[in-house]
Amino acid sequence: MKQWRVLLFLLLLLPAQGLFAQRCISQELLEQHLQRYPAAQTERLRLEDFTRQWTEAAPTSIGFRNVVVIPVVFHVVWNLPQDNISDAQIQSQLIAINKDFRLLNNLNGLIPNIFQPLAADMELTFCLAQRAPDGSTTTGVVRTTTSLPFIGDRIANGRKSVCHTADGGSDSWPTDRYVNIWVGRRQFFPAEASFPGAAVPGEDGIIIDPRFIGTIGTAAANQPYHLGRTLTHEMGHFFNLYHLWGPGQPGGCIQSDQVADTPLQSKTYLGECPSHPQFTCGTTDMFMNFMNYTDDACMAMFSLGQKVRVLAAIAGSRPGLLLSDGCMPAVSTTDPAPEHSIRVVGNPAGGGEIRLQMQGLNGRALHWRLFGLTGILLRQGRLTGAEETAVDVAGMPAGAYVLQVSDTALHLNQKILLLH
Known about the structure:
Layout: H1 2-12, H2 26-36, H3 38-56, H4 58-61, E1 68-78, H5 87-101, E2 124-128, E3 141-145, E4 155-156, E5 159-160, E6 179-183, E7 191-193, E8 206-208, H6 229-238, H7 304-317, H8 320-323, E9 341-345, E10 353-359, E11 365-371, E12 377-384, E13 388-392, E14 399-406, E15 411-418
Parallel strand pairs: 1-2, 1-3, 1-6, 6-8
Antiparallel strand pairs: 4-5, 7-8, 9-10, 10-13, 11-12, 11-14, 14-15
């Protein structure tokens, strides 16, 4: 009975024009989660304090940096055949979201001159996972049939059914190393995302209706939400961005999204593709921002302030995504003889070195290379196999890198997080 009361409350939030009239329910679910789990409030306050400190260092936090590549896994949970969307449709979504996060969406004409200096290349890209949690090769897509209609917003015994195999859905991959995206038919709201520090185990990620994925297939006829921007919007929530009218309901011009360079506004622009300028709180509204409810064709930007907040969320609450090897092809870390091996000891690494532990390689000549996440070779050298040795990375700035150590028969390929 309690679950039905919660559902009724959520339905009352819908405007009179009908279902799917609200683009997402993430912020309302955040408040519901904090009420149900008081300990989560402490974590959210900690993250906001961390974000404030990070924002104070913004001149050094948002300068040019290596582009971060984050692995995602799509759990396609379908009851109707048309909801078993194609790999091509999923790929079209990856293309769309990567253009949006890199400011490569060819929509700069939609960003007015007043906001163009604030438009941010988020320096984040997303890949379909190539390596599964057990190290095996994967396509990054998990397909599951279910007997349950509207699996995407079904709740049973306090759990989101789509997130659990035992409840007719698909179990998450490790949520600290992959962004889990569950694709399942929804009846009430197109999508939802969990904010950092506000999800129960196994449910941290994004749930989205298949009609809102990508730009082809079931999305093509779903105008005005046919350009993949529902997932761009929800990924913003996943990285701790609020709607531009703040964490509560719109109106009043008194709430803030905690970002300094996004003007206050009191309107969602739901179902609109307005022309510039628009005013709701005495200043020009940034209605083309991805964290509004504007039609897909009229969304065009994140701001520099939002970029700082996203980077703070990754550093302060989702650092495992920087270390994940999910975007790397599955490779063997040992040669055919199991007694020969290399492994990294201590990750994150500090003290200007990456420590290695080896077995059966004493005296073998090895070559090491350190790459940025964009694939640029930054440093390389030679070392001699020993039971314990180290790669010298003194002077390298803190951040995420890829270390390769190899000889003719053995190959190690691992993401490393360097600390000062």
